[in-house]
Amino acid sequence: MNPVFNMDAATMSPVALFLQADWVVKFVMGGLLAASIWTWAIIIGFSVRLKRTRKDMTKFERDFWKADDIDAFHKAEAERDLPSARVFAAGVREWRHSTAGGQIDKGGTRERLATAMGAAAASEIDRLSDRLNILATVGSVAPFVGLFGTVWGIMRSFTGIASAQNSSLAVVAPGIAEALFATAIGLFAAIPAVIAYNRFSHGVNRIEAALNRFADGFHTTLSRQLDGSR
Amino acid sequence: MERSEKIGLGVALGGHAVLFGLLSVGFLATPNPETLKQQPITVSLVEEVGKEAVSPTPNVEPAQSVAPEEGPPEDAAPPEPVEAPPAPKPDPAPPAPAPKPAPPKPAPEPVAKPKPAPAPKPAPALKPQPKKPTPAPEKAAPAKPTPAKPSAPAAKPAPAKTATRAAASAAKPTTAARGSGNSPTATASKPRGSRLGDDFLKGLSDRPSTSKAEAAPAAKMGAQAAADIGSAIQRQVQPCANRQVNPGPGASRIRVTINLKLNRDGSLAARPRVVGHSGVDDENSRYVDRVDDLAIASFVGCAPLRGLPADLYDVQNGWSNFTLRYKLPG
């Protein structure tokens, strides 16, 4: 007997459980499996990106505050794919637009600078937390989907009892096992999703706070420049 | 899709494949899942049959130990002349037997003597005489009465023969018992079979025995056995029955007919079932349901019933499915 496709009734093999199941339960299982894979892909990708972003942002800000010439720094770093760099670039762009004319409205310029950098930061955070809602959805819905598969499978095995005219455990047990497998997959997908969602939203919040701090700092610098340039 | 997401997707796919592959080859499988076994149960449907003693009464009357008669009694043959010649030889004998076996015997006449001497016996006859005192008590003693009678002149030969028989039996205590047809005590009591030995024809009878060869009686549930089992169950249930609270006046008049399904070990195979009532009247009719519950509770409470005859468990009307009447105490 091929051990991988062990079709024995008393087996834990997920393949066997999947193949024995009803098509509705199969569909549920397949969906949940895909959700689980997608969840883990997001988790892995997100954690990598979050860590890298945080590191790069720290380094960028350190470099920024050390830089003597903002224009030179802008030329070197503004094109980087980094939230801080985007905010910085947005601020510099708005500064150049506002100071391009002869007459400078300081108050208006400050407001525009703040708005431009705030918008850039918000857009970066949106972009960053794009996948997070998938984790939230999987974490909250997967158990219900799995439960649906279980209920369906148990209903099916009970109708099986009725048609077999035999209520022995051997008749019921495989059906219920494969039905419960749907809930197991649902929880298997949902639990990491929920944990990752909480953890990543916390990480995104920290990045957002760091980004806002940087934007505020840059805004004060520009604002001081605005006053001094007069 | 960014590069990090691609990496994540690849890792997730690989991880899932590895995990499910491990589960498929029995990574977390139960080592030896107990196989579910079903014990087949034989079900026999038996229609209701009246409870009467159906087992045949075993006939214990033993066969009589009566031996057949050994042919018709016959009179002794008249003394033969041939035997006369030996007669002189035993001459010394006559005086000896005469005094000993029958002291009162008046008539051991010489006439008799020639007869007692059948040819084969002369030599032994002489020897035994000194021994006579010992055999005398067993055979000669019973023989005495007969010689006493023959004193009457009419039956002369008879005494003589008994005397000889006594002598003969004395000579050969064992073989002498086998009386041949020609030398028996004709007028004396018939030869009894017991003389042939106590165990001769043991167990046989000369008349048809009252015992009949029948198959061994099967254990069957008769009325007596049913009553015994019923009272045994009542006795064991009594402690639980005494614990029940009488729901109201007249409730103890209600008799509940209750059906028990029992296992072989005396435990209940199913919840007792009430199959009928009696003694319900206007006063206590509202307690019927309560009494039913109490009855069931009594039987459930004292459930494993002990000491019921095991051989009457699964016979027809056996106590595997037993119906009895229950009444609240008091």
TrEMBL record, chain A:
Record flagged with keyword Cell cycle: yes
Membrane topology summary: Multi-pass membrane protein
Any Pfam family the entry gives: MotA_ExbB
Keywords of this entry: Cell cycle, Cell division, Cell inner membrane, Cell membrane, Membrane, Protein transport, Transmembrane, Transmembrane helix, Transport
MotA/TolQ/ExbB proton channel domain location: 81-211
Keyword Cell cycle listed: yes
Record localization: Cell membrane; Membrane
TM stretches of this protein: 27-48, 132-155, 175-197
Principal location listed in the UniProt entry: membrane
Family as reported in the entry's similarity comment: Belongs to the exbB/tolQ family.
Classification via NCBIfam families: tolQ
Protein name: Protein TolQ
Organism the protein comes from: Sphingomonas longa
Protein encoded by which gene: tolQ
Automatic annotation (TrEMBL), chain B:
Compositionally biased region (Basic and acidic residues): 195-205
Compositional bias ranges of the Low complexity kind: 151-177
Biased composition (Pro residues): 75-136
Segments passing through the bilayer: 7-29
Alphabetically ordered keywords of this record: Membrane, Transmembrane, Transmembrane helix
Domain of life: Bacteria
Keyword Oxidoreductase set for record: no
Gene3D superfamilies (alphabetical): 3.30.1150.10
Stretches the record annotates as Disordered: 50-219
Stated name of the protein: Cell envelope biogenesis protein TolA
